[in-house]
């Protein structure tokens, strides 16, 4: 894509930040059927106080437009082996904007091969003098913990395939660590995992931000829209229907539960098919099984994709948001929305790693909450017991206050400042104190830069 000269003149400065990412539709922040990574990218870049360029994906044709201080250049299509070349051709038209921030997740750019091609892309950028910061939204070091998510079965061939995947993932993270200036993760536990293959001083944890511009409407009004009585309980799972997020567990747990504490319940799966996985046969089998459970239940409903303007209604109507995740491989964008709307929540034990964050510890201590108050085993009885415990004994108010406090602590305006601080720090051409394991690799590849 050729950038008009007038825009290059305006945006091509040494202070300009270039972000490479999926991006919401023009004028939106939470676009229907689009990965949460896109919303995250826009929420991070919007509060920044300098010029920014976003090299983003397009659906039908390329486009260029402005949103505030941001120039959005839609110059690549996902799942194309040429996407990184298209990005490079666009990027080198800006000769002074050398500070690049990349949002990365294996599932959003296409096949694993397409996603892995980011390594040679990053290497070329380093050779051209760019400073590279990459946000790893998912950190996977053991693919077997995500077997249902990637379609691995308990066969000899799939076990071998899983071991190969684990080797490839670790190799990928190692190479990304070598060619990048900064690595950003969204949970402290993910930093711990990565530090086994990437120098710890290269990794920075910046907790997932919270959009404080979002507000609820009166619960009564929201329930009128949804056709739900004001005294019933609304228990919600929000987001794409995925295995690792436990959508099937939620459906199975609440499918035959008509009342809790004497009140009728409505279990809502507020979401639809995963935009990045819907074309895979094993995923369709999974999704159809969840849909079948919902259809046969008198208390469950599944919405499909929710429009941006309807998100507020569902969160406003909810009494409790449930996170039955099977693995903590990423920070939850849905949890961020839960904080935005100040809603009580419960989480499965695989997610309790998030409580390693200092702001979580501080806010929970101030409110007199313990991890046991809001976590459950991935068993039906445990989830139902935790749900009842929150709703009946006053913990719901404490949990609501926790969400409100986390909302203020993790305001995206603060997140943007953390990024700006990281990206403006003095850069060295190469890390000169590598760990013994990586010393030889760093010294050989380092000579290239």
Q: How does this model look, in words?
A:
It is built from 19 helices and 15 strands. With about 450 residues, the protein is an alpha/beta fold. The strands form two sheets. An eight-stranded mixed sheet has the order 3-4-2-1-5-6-7-8, sandwiched between helices. Strands 9, 10, 11, 12, 13, 14 and 15 form a seven-stranded mixed sheet that branches. The longest helix has 24 residues, at about 155-180. Helix 9 crosses helix 12, helix 10 (about 245-255) crosses helix 16 and helix 14 (about 360-365) runs antiparallel to helix 17 (about 395-410).
Q: How would you concisely characterize the structure shown here?
A:
The protein has 449 residues and is α/β, with parallel strands linked by helices. The chain is built from 19 helices and 15 strands. It folds into two domains: 5-209 and 415-446, Rossmann fold; 219-409, Glycogen Phosphorylase B (Rossmann fold).
CATH fold assignment of the largest domain:
Rossmann fold
Number of DSSP helical runs:
19
Largest sheet features: 8 strands, mixed
CATH-wise, what's the superfamily of the largest domain? Answer: Glycogen Phosphorylase B
